[in-house]
Design a protein that fits this description.
Blueprint: E1 2-3, E2 29-31, E3 53-56, E4 62-66, E5 79-83, E6 96-100, E7 106-111, E8 116-120, E9 146-151, E10 157-162, E11 167-171, E12 187-192, E13 198-203, E14 208-212, E15 230-237, E16 243-250, E17 255-259, E18 276-281, E19 288-292, E20 297-299, E21 306-310, E22 316-318, E23 329-331, E24 342-346, E25 353-358, E26 364-368, E27 375-379, E28 393-397, E29 403-407, E30 417-419, E31 430-432, E32 444-448
Antiparallel strand pairs: 1-14, 2-20, 3-4, 4-5, 6-7, 7-8, 9-10, 10-11, 12-13, 13-14, 15-16, 16-17, 18-19, 19-20, 21-32, 22-23, 24-25, 25-28, 26-27, 28-29, 30-31
């Protein structure tokens, strides 16, 4: 069943001031590819979607299937690239979609005409032809061409969606529905859930369909953002590995967030002269990347674990146990200790309103009770659709490069701050009212964990 909903969109580059300049955020970067990049004219008409797609390798690199143009396959225009340290396998000289197996060094290239090329650890499927096992036509028409594909999480099957909205399966993958009813728009992405018991399909107008156990988090309401096609989607995960939202990308490089997926940058509506054709979640981190028609890959900023140390007590913010409800305490600083590592998860466009998530417990810093006698505990993280305001914290940079954390209110200038009242180890961390603007009890140093 399709559901449409208009949500906020982002069409400007994220600023380095996001999260007050803390070391978590890396500047947007473009991976430089070796060799000549293919430059193809923008195809038009049925079956001629730009199919340049890519997927994340477990080691942090990417595999890219470059679309050389609908009439250029035999001339070597289409090919497979391995960048950023991803292992290189045989290049496939056909237009197609790449479907990488999560956590494994292997993928399939599913060509627009339904051929299946296994690479790396990916097993052979359907004798190399989608038509051998799913009813896909052996000689597809232009409006039946495959426009997107995704691997089943178990590594033994895949889904492929055609330009006409039909979903085809191979191996262990099962169909949970298709988008034939919205044939007026092209499917541009399919993303399975971690269980493999559902998936999302996005259309070129930004409409999102959710099937099986996929939870709907919103869409552009079927309205092309800025008049640009939506060309792909990727899923965002919380620290428990649960889908908490997704990102959509437009052909101009605008990125659109849904659910609790954080906005971590875009090309700001400037495609750099080559349309953006796909977006992917980066391996092992809450971040994404997008690919251009010519095979160039750009990286979003990233959220990295942080150590948070108090100026007054010279101790680090930590937890005593993974159990929900445990109060936060201060410890001798050990940057490699996961009990003392935190993600600052941005929840607003500016990035200065965050959830503070412990890496080890995957629980959020939670304020329980009234501010004047509140306890700071760890609690299961809440989402934007729930009453999450006691888990939101303003992050403000002050003199000396220190950071202060203020409970959510009308502004980041409310009275209370997270602070330390004693240098004693394992003392509880409290909410304090600063005695002055430079009260070192509420000043914290935030540095990226090693």
């Amino acid at each position: 069943m399709m559901r449409r909903q208009v949500v906020r969109t982002h069409r400007t580059p994220i600023h380095i001031a996001t999260l007050v300049g803390v070391a978590t955020l890396l500047a947007l970067a473009t991976l430089i590819l070796t060799g000549d990049l293919v430059s193809a004219s923008l195809p038009t008409g049925p079956g001629t979607n730009i199919l340049t797609s890519f997927a994340a390798s477990p080691n942090g690199g990417f595999w890219v299937q470059v679309d050389g143009g609908i009439d250029n396959d035999e001339n070597g225009g289409s090919r497979t690239l391995a960048i950023g340290g991803a292992p290189q396998f045989t290049s496939v000289p056909y237009r197609g979609s790449i479907a990488a197996i999560p956590g494994h060094e292997g993928y399939w290239i599913v060509t627009d005409k339904g051929a299946i090329f296994p690479e790396g650890s990916a097993p052979a499927l359907c004798g190399g032809q989608l038509s051998n096992c799913s009813g896909f036509p052996s000689d597809p028409t232009l409006d039946e061409y495959i426009t997107a594909a995704a691997a089943a999480p178990d590594g033994h099957g895949l889904w492929a969606v055609g330009d006409d909205g039909k979903v085809w399966t191979a191996g262990t993958a099962k169909s949970y529905g298709d988008v034939q009813e919205d044939f007026s728009e092209d499917p541009t992405g399919i993303a399975p859930t971690p269980t493999g018991h559902g998936y999302y399909i996005v259309l070129s107008d930004g409409g999102v369909y959710s099937f099986g156990d996929a939870v709907f988090h919103g869409s552009t309401g079927g309205n092309k953002p800025g008049g640009n096609d939506v060309t792909g989607m990727s899923l965002s995960y919380d620290l428990h590995g649960k889908v908490n939202g997704y990102w959509l990308v437009g052909s101009d490089g605008g990125v659109f967030t849904f659910g609790d997926a954080p906005f971590l940058g875009s090309s700001g509506g400037n495609d750099g002269g080559s349309p953006v054709t796909n977006i992917a979640t980066r391996a092992g981190r809450p971040a994404y990347a997008w690919v251009h028609q010519n095979g160039g890959v750009s990286l979003s900023e990233t959220i990295s674990p942080e150590n948070i140390e108090n100026e007054y007590s010279q101790t680090a913010l930590g937890i005593p146990t993974k159990v929900a409800g445990a109060e936060l305490r201060q410890y001798h600083s050990d940057p490699r200790n996961p009990y003392q590592q935190w993600d600052l998860w941005p929840v607003n466009d500016a990035g200065n309103l965050v959830q503070i998530v412990n890496i080890h417990s995957a629980l959020c810093l939670d304020l329980t009770g009234y501010v004047w006698d509140a306890k700071l505990i760890q609690h299961p993280c809440k989402g934007a659709g729930s009453d999450w305001f006691n888990q939101l914290w303003w992050v403000t940079q002050v003199a000396g490069g220190f950071v202060q954390f203020t409970p959510y209110g009308d502004s980041p200038n409310t009275e209370y701050r997270i602070g330390s009242t004693t240098p004693a180890l394992q003392a509880l961390v409290k909410l304090l009212v600063p005695s002055s603007a430079d009260d070192d009890r509420v000043n914290w140093t935030v540095t990226e964990a090693p």
